[in-house]
Give the backbone structure.
Amino acid sequence: MRVTTPLDPAAVIAEFIDRVSPYNRHPDASPVAVLGVRTALGEDVFTLSDHVIRALCRALESYRDPEDRGDCSNCGGRHLDENLHCADCGQLHGILGQVIADHARRVAAAGDDPRSASAG
Ligand SMILES: [Zn+2]
């Protein structure tokens, strides 16, 4: 799914803080971090509790880019398309890639076999 509506990063962060803060077990503790956000839409500075900055870090750590389909086992490239086809070296991955690679090996093996060449 692609995000087509413009993102307001400061608003997103403010919403995140509102969503997470109610679960802070030490709401009276002093803020431990200051986060400044400046975009074309404006500028905001957030003071974050230990609870919120930990939640933010965990959210960032668990994020994976929608285009992230792993590394190519052949060239190590990171640009596999939705069919798990490597844009860098052309290698196919996943079940379809395995089937095609197996078929190519069988065809090559049959071509190398002198009995199949003399048969018929
Ligand atoms: Zn590759």
Notes: The helical segments are 9-20, 50-62, 94-112, 114-118. The longest strand covers residues 33-39. The first helix runs from residue 9 to 20. The CA atoms of residues 10 and 25 lie 25 Å apart.
